[in-house]
Amino acid sequence: NLNNISKNMEGDNIWIKPIDIAYDGKDIFIASYYRGLVEWYNDYWHPITISTPAQNTVWRMDWKKGKLAIAHGGHSDWRPLWLSGKSSVLQKNKWEIIDNFLDKKSVSDLIDIKIAPYDTSIVFATSLVKGLVKIKNGTICNIFDNTNSPLQKFELDTQRLATMSLDCDINQHLWLSNYSSSKPLLVLTKTK
After folding, report:
1. Which range is least confidently modeled, 6-20, 31-45, 51-65?
2. Any bridge partners for residue 47, and if so which?
3. Are 66 and 118 spatial neighbours (Cβ–Cβ below 8 Å)?
4. What share of the chain is helix, strand, coil (3-state, %, to 5)?
5. Whole-structure pTM value
6. Do the beta carbons of residue 66 and residue 89 sit within 8 Å?
7. Cα 96 to the center of its chain, rounded Å
8. Greater confidence, 176 or 82?
């Protein structure tokens, strides 16, 4: 009963602030100013979460064997925009968000992404700031940089290690560009 909803909107429920309500005779859905889309039952609101990518910005994406990976970074004239280090993976109609800041890796500006052709649980992403990021099963397992790989720091800004483009060859080796370095093209051989 819609009258019961307004009577029960006190305490924590006052923070719903309904904008619109949809009722089909059974289910009550509320467009809430503070809470987004919620469902009302048992005299309380319950959040509805919808599977979506981390952001609506897409710089690059890759599709392999039913899996879509998206890099949400970008650049302006080869300078970082300091955009989120988030990447998104869609598999079986469900989005998985990989937040590289929550992993305490502080990776930003992921501008290219590839799903490993030999193992779709592995995703590689390039960063304009940190190097090459390896993600396995939704968690960063390695960041390749100048301390653990042949990658070199940006010649004009030694605080950055800019990797740009990725692609795999027919032998499933990963090729990447190391922007503004003396070794601009490198290969990561197939590893499982």
Report:
1. 6-20
2. 38
3. no
4. 5, 45, 50
5. 0.73
6. no
7. 8
8. 176
Beta bridge partner(s), residue 186: 176
Dist. CA 155–CA 179, nearest whole Å: 9
Query: 3-state SS of 90-133?
Result: EECCEEEEEECCCCCCCCCCEEEEEECCCCCCEEEEEECCEEEE
CA dist., res. 4 & res. 2, Å (int): 5
Confidence of residue 192 (pLDDT cuts 50, 70, 90): very low
In the chain, where does DSSP find H-type helix? 2-7
**Average pLDDT value over all residues in the chain:** 82
Residue with tokens 């925009």: 81
Pairwise CA distance, residues 21 & 177, whole Å: 52
Judged on CB neighbours under 10 Å (0-12, 13-18, 19+), 60 is: buried
Tokens of 21: 């309500």
